[in-house]
Amino acid sequence: VFKIKAVQLAGKLLPAFNTPTGIPWAMVNLKSGVGRNWGWASAGSSILAEFGTLHMEFVHLSYLTGDPVYYNKVMHIRKLLQKMDRPNGLYPNYLNPRTGRWGQHHTSVGGLGDSFYEYLLKAWLMSDKMDTEARKMYDDAIELITNKGMIGFLSCWANALFSL
Q1: Where in the chain are the domains?
Q2: What tens digit of pLDDT does each residue of 111-131 get?
Q3: Looking at the domain that runs over 2-162, which CATH code has it been given?
Q4: Predicted TM-score of the model (pTM)
């Protein structure tokens, strides 16, 4: 029953990805399928931490159902991000789903950005350590964070790191 409900909900969320770039809207009307972003988000952008956290759920749903549509949606996001310029070496917090450009160049390992990086590590762990692409993206970010002196942030992930 939970798998059926998850598929139903995911079906209602899929219209959020109907943007020129495939970057999903932050919100979608579950009845009409119309998506939009928060009014306060930079230049109508989607938020890195929000669309980054869809990764685990959608990959796992594809695994459970055998339907690659969910996996393909989130892998498209990953491929797009990897091709983009990363000011300061990290991914900025805001990405415009219409233009595919960063809403601004502010990066953060706190609110608006943290979950994206955290879920890269979790994706690697959930894949039985086979998703080496997620691990590399995570390792690259951690190296930059460490080099920039953001050590306090690393303590948030200490438990996850010790499980490696």
Answers
A1: 2-162
A2: 899 999 999 999 999 999 999
A3: 1.50.10.10
A4: 0.86
